[in-house]
């Protein structure tokens, strides 16, 4: 994992959790693969082990990670599918309406943006 | 026993000067506690009392024992790095390991050798030939090899460069700390370890002015940057402090709910350093 610049608007455990989610969605960590131990992550980022445990525990509760006794923490087989599903609905329910609002406020039209994008793709 | 340290009405006077004015606090197992205060606030006096190095009034239990009278037993399970990390200059690294192995029953020599093998410190070198950072590494290797339940660190990284400082805490987390042990640390470089801490204690003029878990701190203290138009509304909520940034005002609130503050602007958690400044100025 690369360095993370923490922001002060969200608890670190939540930012760490989002980082792990990102890694899984981007296939940096595959399903069935182990994630670094709590101790390792704590030492690498100089954060408290409890913070790391808390992030991992929430991901376990959401069936994104699973504990294997004596072996550590692993990405579940259906993790990526689940995450994509929830990220998509988060985008559609929360992010997209905001983007839409901004497009309208700037006097742009969705249609022309889509057309521009298509021409760009075709030109490549 | 969940509390490794329990202090009730701990007091200490040097002549007419009261260095500690009846402080109460506890350190539970599996915690990393930051003890923060300006010079002369009483930090070192607290540490000395815990380590049985000074007399005191009031009640103090370390691992359930009395540091003034049971120091020998306590030191089997407590280790310590002082701000003046002194090791005899003529001592060889290998002799240092041998010495601690002979005097300390809970010292694991193989661990110390393992830690040192990962550094550039030669076994045959004398302490006087090592850099300041290396001496700190050697000290840490010795201390981490003691099967201690409580580790007391008094400005452990003073005078070290940033690489050594990071390495120091990295080692502590990777090789020493676990839920069975606790670390009590004082440092002026608080911003470097604030994410490491589970608990925070501020001390000022011999009194504890803040004692909370980091979770509680995050919940209780909120910073909001407020535009001029909303300044009056912010003032009405009785902020503990404010500072001006780019013509806007950043207010620090204590115990005001997020719901009440959200309309005023974006909410942030104050850094421990900012919180410290606020707490030290409070009422002055």
What does this structure look like?
The complex is a heterodimer of chains A (124) and B (284). Helices cover 61% and strands 6% of the residues of chain A. With 124 residues, chain A is mainly alpha-helical. In chain A, helix 1 packs across helix 3 and helix 2 (38-45) packs across helix 3 (49-61). In chain B, strands 5-6-7-3-8-9 form a six-stranded mixed sheet, sandwiched between helices. In chain B, strands 11-12-10-13 form a four-stranded antiparallel sheet. The longest helix of chain B has 15 residues, at 162-176. Chain B has helices at 43-50, 71-75, 93-103, 109-117, 132-144, 162-176, 190-193, 214-220, 231-236, 258-261, 272-281; strands at residues 3-14, 17-28, 32-36, 57-62, 78-81, 150-154, 182-186, 199-204, 207-213, 221-226, 241-245, 248-254, 267-268. Chain B is α/β, with parallel strands linked by helices. The mean pLDDT of chain B is 91. The chains are: A mainly alpha (124), B alpha/beta (284). The A-B interface holds A 6, 8-9, 11-12, 39-40, 42-51 and B 32, 166, 169-171, 173-174, 177-179, 192-193, 195-198, 214, 218, 223, 266-271.
Briefly summarize what is shown:
The complex is a heterodimer of chains A (124) and B (284). Chain A is mainly α.
């Amino acid at each position: 994992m690369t360095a993370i610049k923490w922001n002060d608007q969200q608890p670190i455990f939540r930012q760490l959790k989002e980082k792990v989610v990102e890694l899984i969605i981007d296939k940096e960590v595959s399903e069935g693969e182990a994630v670094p131990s709590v101790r390792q992550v704590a030492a690498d980022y100089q954060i408290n082990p409890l913070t790391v445990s808390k992030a991992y525990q929430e991901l376990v509760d959401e069936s994104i990670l699973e504990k294997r006794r004596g072996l550590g923490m692993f990405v579940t087989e259906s993790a990526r599918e689940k995450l994509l599903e929830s990220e998509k609905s988060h985008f559609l329910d929360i992010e997209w309406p905001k983007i839409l609002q901004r497009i309208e406020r700037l006097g742009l039209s969705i249609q022309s943006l889509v057309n521009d994008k298509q021409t760009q793709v075709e030109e490549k | 026993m969940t509390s490794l340290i329990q202090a009730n009405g701990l007091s200490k006077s040097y002549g007419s000067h009261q260095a500690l004015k009846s402080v109460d606090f506890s350190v539970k197992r599996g915690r990393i506690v930051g003890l923060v205060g300006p010079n002369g606030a009483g930090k070192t006096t607290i540490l000395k009392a815990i380590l049985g190095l000074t007399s005191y009034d009031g009640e103090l239990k370390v691992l359930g024992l009395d540091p003034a009278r049971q120091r020998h037993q306590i030191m089997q399970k407590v280790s310590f790095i002082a701000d003046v990390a002194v090791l005899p200059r003529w001592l060889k690294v290998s002799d240092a390991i041998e010495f601690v192995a002979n005097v300390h029953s809970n010292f694991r020599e193989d661990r110390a050798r393992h830690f040192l093998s990962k550094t550039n410190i030669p076994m045959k070198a004398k302490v006087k030939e090592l850099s300041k950072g290396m001496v700190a590494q050697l000290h840490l290797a010795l201390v981490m090899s003691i099967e201690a339940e409580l580790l007391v660190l008094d400005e452990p990284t003073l005078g070290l460069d940033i690489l050594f400082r990071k390495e120091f805490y990295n080692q502590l987390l990777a090789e020493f700390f676990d839920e069975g042990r606790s670390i009590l640390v004082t440092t002026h470089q608080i911003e470097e370890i604030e994410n490491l801490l589970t608990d925070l204690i501020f001390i000022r003029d011999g009194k504890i002015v803040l004692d909370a878990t980091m979770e509680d701190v995050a919940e209780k203290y909120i910073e909001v940057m407020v535009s001029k138009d909303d300044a009056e509304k912010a003032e009405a909520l009785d902020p503990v402090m404010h500072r001006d940034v780019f013509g806007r005002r950043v207010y620090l609130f204590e115990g005001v709910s997020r719901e009440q503050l959200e309309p005023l602007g974006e909410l942030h958690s104050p850094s421990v350093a900012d919180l410290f400044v606020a707490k030290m100025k409070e009422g002055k």
